[in-house]
Specification:
9 strands; Spore Coat Polysaccharide Biosynthesis Protein SpsA, Chain A; about 20% strand; globular
């Protein structure tokens, strides 16, 4: 069984298109792979249940109070039964062969706990090319995920046991929860890249979480500091500390330009803390 989990907040037409891209998976349509589709509504102000009536009998729908995307994903995960788990954001689309290719890969490599794919980026309805900093890597890529989030959850397929071992998404993070999970995942396991664009990431719309929060590095620093509690090697701790300092410098400069002295001081203190720790024997 493959469990597909879609969290949703106040999306209608895009949500229906995302759902249809799941139902159109070739291995689901021909019955090759058994699956369940779970939609978790995160306290939308629109009547998502009514919107989804056309899919009655083809998905399971849960309506929850608004607690954020991490809580919605975690709830869907708790209600799922599949041995493999896939997440799809309600503004993204899957190509019809995504699951077939990923399941085939996982079956040929039983020791793999997760794989992800390349993406097609669409902004404001037009295809765009990702910057070089968004380049994806394969294997033991812990150091590659520290600058920014490379693990697009919509492109990934996980074995269920990875959540039992690593834990679920951090509900205290309003954004960058995927970044946090990517750090925990790649610290313990290799992440395998399938070098084919099997999803379409649609961006540019005003309800994206990244548009709601300025200074995403604020939340990435939280995730990085959390990661220091993991069983890191000395080299990994050095990489994390260096990245915390780099991000704190960017934030301190940004808050200074915005004339916010208390926030500026906060990140200057973080810089001093980790620079001192790096100098200590």
């Amino acid at each position: 069984m493959i469990s597909v989990i879609i969290p949703n907040f106040n999306r209608t037409d895009m949500l229906k298109e995302s759902i249809q891209s799941v139902l159109d998976q070739d291995v689901f349509r021909d019955g090759t792979e058994p699956y369940e589709l779970i939609v978790v509504d995160d306290g939308s102000s629109v009547d998502t249940g009514r919107i989804l009536r056309e899919f009655e009998g083809r998905l399971t729908y849960y309506a929850r109070e608004h607690r954020g995307v991490s809580a919605a994903r975690n709830y869907g995960l708790s209600r799922s039964t599949g041995e493999m788990i896939a997440f799809l954001d309600s503004d993204d689309l899957w190509k019809p062969d995504k699951i077939r290719i990923q399941v085939g890969f996982m079956k040929t490599l039983p020791e793999a706990v997760a794989c992800y794919t390349e993406e097609i980026w669409v902004r404001h309805g037009r295809r765009v090319n990702p910057h070089d900093k968004h380049r994806k890597y394969s294997g033991w890529i812990f150091e590659k995920v520290l600058p920014l989030c490379l693990l697009s959850l919509s492109s990934a397929l996980f074995r269920r046991r990875v959540f039992d071992e690593l834990g679920v998404f951090d509900e205290n993070l309003p954004v960058c929860e995927d970044y946090d999970f990517g750090i925990r995942l790649t610290q313990k396991y290799p992440l395998h890249l399938i070098p084919r664009p099997l999803i379409e990431k649609r961006g540019g719309h005003p309800d994206q979480l990244s548009h709601e929060y300025w200074g995403m590095d604020r939340f990435r620093i939280v995730a990085l500091e959390k990661s220091l509690e993991l069983d890191l090697t000395g080299e990994q701790k050095e990489l994390v500390s260096r990245e915390i300092i780099r991000k704190a410098k960017i934030l301190a400069a940004g808050f200074s330009k915005r004339n916010k002295p208390s926030e500026t001081l906060r990140y200057q203190d973080i810089i001093k803390k980790y620079e001192i720790e790096r100098r200590e024997p």
